[in-house]
Design goal:
By secondary structure, the protein is an alpha/beta fold. It has helices at 28-38, 43-50, 54-66, 79-82, 86-91, 98-107, 143-147, 150-161, 173-176, 205-221, and strands at 2-5, 77-78, 108-112, 116-118, 123-124, 166-170, 187-197, 200-202, 239-240, 249-254. The mean pLDDT is 97.
Length: 258
Amino acid sequence: MLLVISPAKNLDYDTPATTDTYSQPDHLDHAAKLIEQLKDFAVQDIAELMKLSDKLSALNVARYQSWHPDFNTDNAKQAVLAFNGDVYTGLNAPAFSEEELNFAQQHLRILSGLYGLLRPLDLMQPYRLEMGTKLANPQGKDLYAFWGNVITDALNEQLQALNSEELVNLASTEYFKSVKPKGLNGRVITPVFKDWKNGQYKIISFFAKKARGLMCRYAIENRIQNAEDLKGFDLAGYQYDESLSKGDTWVFTRKEAL
């Protein structure tokens, strides 16, 4: 079983890493091409392209200018420890043991607009480049065209390494569009998390994002190898709801947030 999640907009490079173990991203050559293109953008260009404030645009222009492909622990940080959003709050990777980090390294992947596909312990320099950004490039009109089959092929390689045909999609729609399900050598299982509100179960974005991270944590802490065992997920009060689930869309519900 392989799990995929989205990155986060917020980054934490101030808190020291909880492990000395790291790896290098597989697609740095692709990232370097994007960075070379982004280095030509002025602050206002980035603001318009990414719909950012001038302050955030200036921050990211500086990031592009200082980015270089020689990653080390002085200028980069492990991806799963650098991302700092709702999914990563649920995941709580800083609390993982070395054994749990090693399991995550094999069974978890992070989709990225700049880096394509990251392993948890891949070093990453700070950036902002969402997958849905319409950055025209030699491959096409946006990043989906840029990445083409690269991400799908990489996922297939890891599925083969795991001797598995199960990909668990815990990423957002924006990011999972970079994957081509018909090109995957396996089934795609998509957990959906719903909370009780106003007399019915609804997807509440904040809770759903955190739950995606919680499910990853559940899989990692329990060393889950087969997707079927994810139906036992019970963190934060969620439980598998067979009546609302259909096919490979698995619904998990809870009455009250814990």
